[in-house]
Specification:
55 helices; about 25% helix; twelve-stranded mixed β-sheet; seven-stranded mixed β-sheet; 55 strands
């Protein structure tokens, strides 16, 4: 340390190095200590250049003593405490003898201190708030300079008095320090203890340990740095320092002396750069919390290895072969600054003896004398200098610390720029050196030199400069890294350095020499203290008056440098120092200045400015003069208005119309995007949202605590109809009901939110959408915030919306809605990037995506308007206002600039009002901008018959200042008697709007409101009201503004708070919709823009030149400089008023003004394109010319109005007293700004109302110059500079090595950018969500909707709620078939009915007597052949015409039904109750199933059938196995006598194909939770997919030969299997003593589309009466099954079924409870009785009709329960539709029609890929008339069909007969048949059987057999040739290939 040079030996230095070396040797067991002389003599030429930053001659090896060293990185170095002696005290704060050592306990006690000893305070890590008192020999403590402490230790215990501790380790054990690291006196002995005036022992100054704490830099580059970054935690008084003065200190003790040493035992933070500090808003609210905030930041880069570097000594922990040192030594000071940054309770008011609010700093401690801050610095300099610490040491400061501000921003920026980006770090140990300190400093100087006089340095700019420089210098390595794999030992880096420390001061001075002294470089010889003292001296002497930045460089000691940069420019220093205040401090500061009367001097100054005397005196005088007659112009206009009222009865204004409320295409698109995101959450396999379980939607909208926003949102909800749509309210909805759904997040929110949570818990079937609107507001963490206990409103959002109940509730979806989502897009966000919805862009590749009649005008459009080519910019700044503010800032340096700006602006408004009202001399005291605004405000009501005016928004963020502005403007308005002309409204978030009675009356008249009590509650309701809205509150809270907003005055926004969110939300106030039909391009805006008569903002070069030529006398002296015009000149709209005195004096007369009339040739409709000035004319006024053209242009091109050295006098004069603008007749109504020149008056009369313009033009926005420059200047990415700012104060950048945002980025890409490059600060609510980037860290039911401000997000999310509700209702609805029964009108001969109408079950004897109804009534068989019976005589016209085959599905009628709680569901339904049933429960995720083969023989198939069962473990109890896990033996069957009410006896079998997702196999709810056995019957090739979707269902897998078979095969196998199983169960249970007939013989065969079951309750009026009433209700399948299974004599019925539901059911259909007829869809089959009746396994269609006929003909009973009905869902996929008939010839794309399904045998016909049976059935259905021509529409002569029913189409009737002996057949004695169909007939059909039947002459025969051979045999066996004539050409086959076994036909004619 000290001033030693390399190569120059000082004895004290030598001693120190020797001591260190000896000490290192003693402590080291293995390693050889480093030679002393190599530490002292390090020749410069052997060193790496200054780039590596080595070369400091200090050898400080106590690396681990520095805060944030590398301690824990090496596990071998963990410190083990020796065990304490038996029985000793181990309590913290007491010694082992049990005596109290805490300072607070023994401060009053007398303590014996031996001579030569001092009392010092030791810090224990376990007692951070206490000091332990120790007595230590002062020889082992350092002197004042941190030198000459002997190695070792000698101390005594003051508690028990034990003396002579020779080792600090031993002593620390005795006083119970309980350390986790090697005890070091430097670490733990912190403070001297001193007696105060009362004799009490108190904490004194810090012990100034020389070693690691205050070392400036490492010399030996092979050692690890003591502290890469500023300490994050300080001990002793440091943490408390901002809020309480250290006892025993006084302001003159150097601040550095109070600096705590880095006594920290927290984990190392070397791998993380310090949190990026931006404008003084840094992360830790409490210093210790910063520890964990750093983990995401990249490791700082290493700097290279010295040639002689070897492994470090024992104490250098964490060394690895790749590790290299960095340039930095310890900088413990930064932590202190960080504690200050967020302003935790720092008093804003400077107090004696306490460091002031902006200067609570803890400089890096260095050797040397402290620097004294001069006492009168602020008074002399007119601004507090801001000193940025740079590299190296920073000296102590003492004295007048209130007048300087010290900031670590630059230091942090340098640190961050030393860390290489992660991209390159991933390639192993990096060879790329970071940018050197010298280069950093040189680039900084270069950057400062380029800054204009009105610009403020931005750390972001500097970071980008460093990044570019580093990239350029390492381009080759970067490219190499992108191609080559990393090497384990990278080559040594290049040692060439761009700038050496010797060159640096000279180069910096050279760079600064070009900037006219705005940057001053001071070079120091020994330390920065010299430079700072020199700077303070120059400041006091006034020699730096033109200097904005002072760069102090100390580059003396070898290669290392110390530096700091002081900002002394008054403008820059003020802005930077104010930017370091947090919002809370800013408000406190302003409040303090107002309360203490500091602002009075400002008011006095204003009064002195006014040459006519005090403004208030002028006002009073004006008031008295005009008391009787208000200013004539106003009176005239108001009387005119009254006359217009009287004449017409009602004033008419065509421009004012309320917007029709409707949903815009954009909003609908966004609502649909939201819905699809919610659906995708539900569809994902994570089961996070079960949409199927919700019946309705409810919602709660949480908004910031703004009364206007609250009323606005309530209004939206009330009028959107969403409450009716969601079924939450009935008509009419009251406002009170709407309020229930909007929650203002204030102190009362907690109770209402609790009720919301309770409601969501009690209604699990309601989906609650929690909408967090304006979601970027209040992201404060409830956990990390220190205020959370005292202030319940802080962290409220976090406490409510992130509470465990919300996160875990399965029925709450959270939707964050914001225009500024950046703070919710960090590395720790809870919102998945897939759950972000961004507002869509309106144009894509020039195509208008959503046609809307209004165009949104947002930030980018406002910025575009400033580009050249646009006639008038909508963004402007006011340079005369800025100049005045700057001048007053110098005059009143102690006032906050917000106070000055507010007072100046209010003064301008007051002067403008006076000027317009008849005091023209006041125009000199306002700016053109303010005059324009005021003129238009006052004149706009006069141009409208109704008095509609415009709104001026005056944004005053600070509430106390807003109140001052309101009072002042209201006072001026009252004195000018303008109360009736415009309103002044003070808008504050916490209060509602107050509007005067006169204006309320006007608003009610305009809006046709009758309610006497009505008051406007939102700003939107102020539409058309001429008013100034003073809008206060630190942040806008989403308030919408009316279309009559004309001017958005943002000149008072806090421009020092440069954060993207803050800027954009202020500008969002002006966002606007304009009519699409008014193009806002060149020229088009001119006629609709309103502007002041004197507005000099020409945009046409020729015209400007012409103007200048007209008045050479006035303006040639200041001709425009030839500057390239990139932007339109009217940005600096104020400069137009600054006419030079010369031109002003010539031009003030009206006579000259007449020269400026429009040129003769100018068409009347198009005024010259010279800004809006021509608008402001009345018919009698000759358009005047804009004067002062020259000065305007000049001042535009000088940056702002910053004083230039040569013109300071003139500019000063301008800035303090704005010269008079041309004095036109402003006081009269001729100043009206929206009348046109005479020629145009008639044309534009209709659109003179300001409301007409409102629709076509967005408001004009006035900004502070700083913000304006930020928006209109673009960075290299093409985006405005504001886009590259820190996105939000609650986040920080992860690294300064980040790319810029790109102009081409979409919103999604921008989100991903912020998610990669930002992390939340500890105060942010997402801070604790640490699982970075992992999917499980995202909350699954959380969405983010972002879109520009005021674009309609509220309407979009309300629309989303509506369509979500509709979708949920749709999800709970199904389309069920709703078709009347067919063939009900056919006359029946028999009148035999089941007359016991009240019987619950059929009476067996009665039922047997009922005839069987052969006719099919099921509407799905409308296209099937009618079955004739002897009961009917059918006329041919009784049958309808057939439908086309393709129409069969399309045209079936359906009805939409709400699912009941007893419905069957498909795979999309998930609810808590049936998770286990479905097998999707987390505990059942890996559902184990076993595959079991089950074989039985069946003689008809001639082979053994092998089926496979897939049985989940949970269902094995339904089966019998030979042993556990052994052979499957049978399926358990219950007994007929079982009476279990929770069990369904009949197993249910559901054949299914192609419906693994859509089949209704979830019968849990349908069965009402009852036990049941359900088996899915699937084809082998579909087994896997069904098992995936239904893991907990039993599957019966059909053999592979049935893969292409139809439903008949499934039915056949089910029945055969079940009969075989019945036999097995009978045998098994017979052994248990059960009779065979007691085993339950029934099974259910159900379609996969049966969705609900109903029962008809019939109320019969009397016994056997035909009069009855009935109603239908939904019941569970359990109810239906248990009722049917309880039927008496049930085993006597072969088939039981029920009606198919239809809404058209007639009474007579349910009147008879039972019918003996066909049953379909859901049948209960007795497998015992039907043992000998089989399904036809070949059938695809009508197999149930075929089976019913066989069962009946076998003499068995079919019973249909008419009072039960089944609803069948329409399912558009799978089932019979999965059979497609295609050609086997691949290139044939021609559609195949049914007529091609058969062909001649052996023909070359196209072979079809389909089963033969399917081709046969389809052909007969559509083309059977080819075989049976006589039968067509000949119902009295049907086709005789033997042993089978085949559908021959609706126009042919069939008569079914069975050839089986003893079968029941209809009597055919009198019937002559028109055809005979023999289908695969068996041996029961004989020649004699056929001879019983009579046929018409010419009747046709069709014989169908498996092959041609059996065809011939059949003809012979049945002796068919006797009666039938055959021809060769009458033989056919189905169009199959031979391998597909086609069927063969033979047709013949009856002879």
């Amino acid at each position: 340390m000290g001033n030693s040079y390399a190569g120059q030996l000082k004895s004290t230095r030598f001693e120190e190095v020797l001591h260190n070396s000896i000490e290192a040797s003693l402590r080291s067991n293995t390693l050889v200590p480093r030679p002393i002389f190599s530490q002292l003599y390090l020749e410069a030429e052997q060193q790496l250049s200054s780039l590596e930053g080595g070369g400091r001659a200090d050898n400080e090896e106590e690396e681990d003593e520095g805060e944030g060293g590398l301690e824990p990185s090496s596990p071998s170095n963990a410190y083990q405490l020796p065990p304490p002696p038996e029985g000793c005290c181990t309590t913290d704060g007491f010694c082992q003898a049990g005596k109290d050592l805490r300072l607070v306990s023994i401060s009053q006690e007398p303590i014996e201190v031996p001579s030569g000893f001092l009392l010092v305070g030791a810090k224990s890590p376990s007692l951070p708030d206490h000091l332990l008192v120790c007595a230590v020999d002062k020889r082992f403590l350092p002197d004042d300079n941190g030198h000459n402490a002997l190695l070792g230790f000698s101390g005594n215990c003051v508690g028990c008095g034990k003396k002579g501790f020779c080792y600090f380790t031993e002593f620390s054990n005795h006083i119970n320090l309980k350390l986790s690291t090697q005890p070091k006196k430097q670490k733990h002995l912190k403070y001297y203890l001193v007696r105060n005036a009362q004799g009490a022992l108190t904490k004194g100054p810090l012990i100034c340990w020389k070693g690691s704490e205050f070392r400036s830099r490492q010399n030996s580059t092979n050692t690890c740095p003591s502290s890469l970054f500023p300490p994050l935690e300080s001990s002793g008084s440091l943490a408390a320092f901002p809020s309480d003065p250290v006892p025993g200190t006084n302001p003159n003790i150097p601040v550095g002396a109070q600096q705590a040493g880095p006594a920290s035992d927290h984990p190392s933070v070397t791998t993380a750069a310090g949190p990026t500090v931006f404008n003084g808003k840094d992360s830790p609210k409490q210093p210790q919390l910063a520890k964990s905030s750093l983990s995401a930041v990249p490791r700082p880069s290493a700097l290279g290895i010295l040639p002689n570097s070897g492994p470090p000594k024992k104490r250098h922990k964490g060394w690895s072969p790749e590790s290299k040192s960095t340039t930095d030594g310890g900088f413990p000071q930064g932590g202190g600054n960080r504690t200050k940054q967020e302003g935790t309770g720092v008093p804003c008011v400077p107090q004696p003896g306490l460091v002031g609010p902006a200067s609570v700093t803890f400089p890096v401690v260095a050797s040397g004398e402290p620097v004294s801050v001069p006492d009168n610095l602020l008074k002399i300099c007119k601004a507090k200098p801001v000193i940025f610490k740079g590299h190296g040491n920073f000296p102590y400061l003492c004295g007048n610390l209130n007048d300087v501000v010290i900031s670590p921003l630059l230091y942090t920026c340098y640190q961050n720029s030393q860390s290489l980006s992660r991209a390159y770090e991933q390639h192993g140990a990096s060879t790329m050196q970071p940018i050197s300190e010298e280069t950093q400093l040189f680039l900084t100087v270069y950057y400062l030199v380029q800054l204009a006089a009105d610009q403020v340095p931005l750390m972001e700019d500097l970071e980008q400069i460093f990044l570019r420089s580093w990239r350029e210098s390492h381009l080759t390595e970067i490219r190499q890294y992108q191609q080559a794999p990393p090497q384990p030992f990278p080559p040594a880096p290049n040692t060439a350095a761009p700038v050496t420390s010797a060159q640096l001061p000279w180069l910096a001075g050279l760079a600064a020499s070009s900037c006219n002294d705005s940057v001053h470089v001071i070079e120091c010889t020994y330390s920065l203290a010299e430079g700072l003292s020199e700077m303070f001296r120059l400041l006091i002497e006034g020699k730096l008056s033109k200097t904005n930045y002072v760069v102090i460089i100390c580059a003396c000691r070898n290669a290392a440098i110390d530096s700091c940069i002081a900002v002394t420019g008054k403008y820059q220093a003020r802005i930077l120092s104010e930017s370091l205040l947090s919002p809370a401090e800013y408000q406190r500061e302003v409040h303090y200045e107002l309360v203490t009367g500091k602002v009075d001097s400002l008011g006095a100054f204003f009064s002195s400015l006014c040459p006519e005397g005090d403004i208030d005196i002028l006002l009073d005088k004006f008031h008295q003069e005009n008391q009787g007659h208000v200013s004539s112009s106003f009176t005239a206009s108001s009387t005119k208005k009254t006359a217009a009222l009287d004449a017409s009865g009602v004033p008419v204004c065509t421009s004012y119309r309320l917007e029709p409320r409707g949903i815009r295409p954009f909003q609908l698109a966004v609502a649909q995007k939201l819905l699809s995101h919610v659906c995708s959450i539900a569809d994902s396999s994570t089961q996070n949202l079960d949409l199927g379980s919700f019946e309705k939607v409810d919602f709660l909208i949480c908004i910031p605590p703004s009364e206007v926003t609250y009323q606005q949102t309530v209004f939206h909800v009330w009028h959107s109809g969403v409450l009716l749509e969601l079924g939450l309210e009935k008509e009419p909805v009251t406002k009170q009901r709407a309020e229930q759904h909007v929650l203002k997040l204030d102190t009362e929110a907690q109770a209402r939110f609790k009720a919301f949570l309770q409601n969501s818990f009690q209604n699990p079937h309601t989906l609650f959408v929690l909408i967090h609107d304006h979601a970027h507001w209040d992201l404060v963490s409830a956990v990390h915030n220190i205020y959370s206990q005292s202030d319940p409103s802080v962290g409220l959002v976090d406490r409510l919306l992130n509470c465990r109940e919300v996160k875990e509730a399965p029925n709450i979806v959270t939707l964050h809605v914001t225009s500024f989502p950046y703070a919710l897009q960090t590395q720790h966000t809870l919102i998945s990037p897939y759950n972000e919805i961004h507002w869509p862009v309106s144009y894509s590749n020039g195509v208008d995506l959503y046609h809307e009649n209004k165009k949104y005008f947002g930030l980018s459009e406002f910025i575009d308007s400033t580009l050249s080519g646009h006639s008038l910019p909508l963004l402007r700044y006011d340079s005369s206002f800025e100049a005045m503010v700057t001048a007053l800032g110098k005059r009143f340096p102690r006032l906050h600039s917000a106070v000055i700006r507010t007072f100046v602006l209010v003064q301008h408004y007051a002067a403008a009002m006076m000027a317009v009202s008849g005091l023209p001399q006041m125009k000199n005291h306002t700016s053109v901008e303010t005059l324009e605004i005021t003129q238009n405000l006052l004149n706009s009501p006069k141009q409208c018959p109704c008095g509609h005016g415009l709104m001026v928004l005056l944004r005053v963020p600070c509430s106390p200042l807003a109140a001052v502005a309101y009072e002042r403007l209201a006072h001026v308005r009252a004195r000018l008697a303008l109360e009736e002309h415009f309103e002044i409204i003070l808008g504050h978030p916490s209060s509602s709007i107050t509007v005067g009675k006169h204006f309320v009356k006007q608003l009610k008249m305009w809006q046709k409101i009758e309610d006497a009590e009505w008051r406007p509650q939102t700003y939107l309701e102020l539409e058309g009201l001429p008013c100034i809205l003073i809008f206060s509150g630190m942040d806008p809270h989403g308030e919408s503004l009316p279309r009559s907003l004309r001017y958005c005055d943002l000149r008072l926004i806090n421009s020092s708070c440069l954060v993207r969110t803050a800027l954009e939300q202020e500008l969002g106030l002006a966002a606007y919709f304009v009519s699409n039909d008014a193009p806002l391009e060149k020229g088009a805006k001119i006629e609709v823009l309103e502007s002041d008569g004197e507005k000099l903002s020409s945009t046409d070069e020729d015209e400007e030149a012409g103007v200048e030529g007209c008045f050479d006398a006035g303006s040639t002296s200041e001709k425009r400089s030839p500057v390239k015009r990139e932007r339109s000149h009217s940005h600096d709209s104020a400069s137009s008023s600054l006419s030079s005195k010369a031109s002003g004096s010539v031009l003030y007369g009206e006579s000259l003004a007449q020269l400026s009339g429009p040129p003769q040739g100018e068409p009347a409709r198009s005024p010259p394109p010279c800004g809006p000035a021509e608008e402001g004319r009345t018919p009698g006024e000759i358009p005047r010319l804009r004067v002062s053209q020259g000065p305007m242009v000049v001042s535009r091109h000088s940056p702002g109005l910053a004083p230039q050295p040569d013109s300071s006098l003139r500019t000063g004069q301008r800035s303090l007293q704005v010269p008079a603008a041309p004095s036109s007749q402003l006081s009269s109504s001729s100043g009206s700004s929206s009348a046109m020149p005479t020629a145009n008056v008639l044309v534009l009369q209709a659109s003179q109302c300001s409301m007409a313009k409102a629709c076509r033009q967005p408001p004009i926005v006035f900004l502070p110059k700083l913000v304006y420059d930020m928006l209109v200047s673009t960075d290299s990415s093409g985006l405005p500079k504001s886009a590259s700012l820190l996105p939000s104060p609650s986040v920080m950048w992860t690294s300064s090595f980040r790319p810029l945002l790109s102009k081409m980025m979409t919103s999604t890409e921008q989100s991903l950018y912020y998610r990669q490059w930002t992390v939340p600060r500890p105060s942010h609510m997402d801070y604790g969500n640490r699982a970075e980037g992992r999917v499980d860290s995202f909350h699954p039911r959380r969405l983010l909707l972002s879109g520009p401000p005021q674009i309609g997000k509220t309407g979009a999310y309300l629309q989303f709620l509506s369509i979500l509700s509709r979708m949920l209702i749709r999800l709970t609805e199904v389309d069920v078939y709703d078709e009347e029964e067919i063939n009900t009108s056919l006359p029946e001969e028999s009148d035999w009915h089941y007359l016991q109408l009240t019987d619950p079950w059929p009476d067996l004897e009665l039922f047997k007597k009922m005839p069987f109804d052969y006719i099919i009534h099921d509407p799905k068989y409308e296209d099937a052949s009618l079955i004739c019976s002897h009961h009917q005589s059918i006329k041919s016209e009784d049958r309808g015409t057939s439908r086309k085959p393709e129409d069969l599905y399309v045209r079936r009628q359906t009805a939409r039904m709400r699912l009941s709680k007893y419905a069957a569901y498909n795979t999309y339904h998930h609810c808590e109750q049936c998770h286990q049933y479905m097998g999707f429960h987390p505990h059942y995720q890996l559902y184990e199933s076993t595959l079991h083969a089950f074989a039985f023989s069946y003689s008809m198939l001639g082979e053994e059938i092998q089926l496979h069962f897939i049985i989940p473990k949970s269902k094995e109890h339904h089966f019998v196995f030979s042993q556990p896990g052994g052979q499957l033996e049978s399926m358990r069957l219950p007994l007929v006598t079982d009476k279990n009410h929770e069990h369904i006896k009949s197993p249910t079998f559901t054949p299914t194909t192609g419906r693994h997702e859509h089949g209704l196999f979830n019968l849990y709810h349908a069965m009402d939770g009852a036990n049941h056995l359900h088996v899915l019957v699937v084809k082998e090739y579909e087994m896997a997919i069904y098992k995936k979707y239904w893991p907990n269902h039993i599957m019966l897998v059909l053999p592979s030969i049935f893969n292409s078979a139809g439903v008949g095969a499934a039915h056949f196998l089910i029945k055969e299997l079940c009969y075989h199983n019945l036999e097995l169960e009978r045998n098994r249970q017979e052994e248990l003593g059960v009779k065979p007939q007691d085993i339950w013989p029934f099974i259910v065969i159900s379609d996969d589309s049966c969705v609900m079951w109903n029962v008809a309750d019939v109320d019969c009026a009397g016994e056997r009466s035909r009069e009855f009433s009935w109603s239908e209700r939904n019941v569970s399948l359990k109810y239906v099954m248990q009722h049917i299974e309880a039927s008496p004599n049930i085993t006597h019925y072969a088939l039981i079924g029920m009606r198919k539901w239809t809404s058209k059911t007639r009474g007579h259909e349910v009147q008879e409870p039972f019918s003996r007829c066909h049953v379909h869809d859901f049948i209960i089959l007795n497998v015992d009785l039907t043992q000998n009746v089989q399904y036809n396994q070949n059938r695809f269609t009508c197999d149930d009709v075929d089976f019913n006929l066989r069962v009946h003909s076998a003499g068995l009973l079919l019973c249909r329960f008419n009072r039960f009905s089944v609803m069948k869902k329409q399912i558009a996929v799978g089932g019979h539709r999965s059979f497609h008939i295609t050609s086997k010839v691949s290139d044939s794309s021609v559609a195949i029609v049914p007529s091609q399904y058969i062909c001649a045998p052996d023909s070359k016909h196209t072979f079809l890929a389909a089963p033969a049976q399917l081709l046969l059935e389809k052909f007969l259905q559509y083309h059977s008339h080819r075989f049976f021509p006589l039968s067509l529409k000949n119902h009295s002569h049907p086709v005789l069909s033997v042993d089978c029913y085949l559908n021959l189409g609706p126009q042919i009737s069939v008569c079914y007969v069975s050839s089986r002996p003893h079968s029941l057949n209809i009597s055919c004695s009198g019937v002559a048949f028109s055809g005979l169909l023999l289908y695969l007939c068996d041996s029961f059909v004989g020649a004699s059987f056929l001879k019983k039947f009579h046929f018409l002459k010419g009747a046709t025969l069709c014989v169908i057999c498996q092959d041609r051979n059996s065809l011939r045999q059949t003809v012979v066996r049945l002796e068919l040739e006797d009666e039938w004539q055959f021809r060769l050409r009458d033989e056919f086959q189905t169009a199959n290939a031979k391998e597909d076994r086609p069927l063969f036909f033979l047709t013949g004619r009856h002879i």
